[in-house]
Design a protein that fits this description.
Blueprint (H helix, E strand, L loop, with lengths): L1 H18 L16 H19 L3 E8 L4 E7 L6 E6 L3 E8 L6 E8 L7 E10 H15 L7 E2 L3
Parallel strand pairs: 4-7
Antiparallel strand pairs: 1-2, 2-3, 4-5, 5-6
């Protein structure tokens, strides 16, 4: 993906050096400052394209609504707009409250969803939710989701 952009940069650099009267195939071509702008510009553009293409989405806010029986969450990724997604409770396959260590005082909710016509998706909701709050959320959610809400998972045990 970055190769065509970089080749474009080399072509632009060659044109810039030709415009300044320097043979692009000579050893003095890299002494010409006009070649550096297209080379660094296109390699930076290629890096930016790779960042956008490989960036991971992050959930920055979420809420469970008992009236509409929906989970809504807002996710973001570098250089992209915020996107709000709504998932009905029927499409939630599992909710796993998780802490990373047995002595941790905070954790997150791991939610697995499967919307019809789409792939299964795993969400990491929250980051530093206190364990007591995690358990309260899960007790509340179990009224709506039943056995799809799992007990607290301590990952190092």
């Amino acid at each position: 993906m970055a190769a065509p952009v970089y080749l474009l940069g080399l072509g632009l650099a060659s044109l810039a050096s030709l415009a300044n009267g320097v043979n692009p195939f000579s050893s003095g071509v890299f002494a010409d400052p006009a070649i550096w702008i297209p080379l660094f510009g296109t390699s930076g553009l290629a890096g930016l394209m790779l960042l956008v293409a490989t960036s991971r989405k992050t959930v920055i806010a979420f809420s469970f609504n008992s009236e509409t029986r929906q989970l809504s969450y807002v996710e973001t990724a570098p250089l992209r707009k915020l996107r709000t997604t709504v998932v009905p409770f029927e499409s939630i396959r599992a909710v796993n409250p998780t802490v990373l260590t047995s002595y941790a005082t905070a954790g997150y909710l791991s939610v697995i969803t499967r919307v019809p016509g789409q792939d299964e998706k795993s969400l990491w909701l929250g980051n530093d939710i206190p364990v007591e709050s995690l358990q309260a959320h899960c007790a509340w959610l179990s009224r709506y989701l039943g056995d799809r809400v799992q007990p607290l998972l301590r990952q190092d045990c």
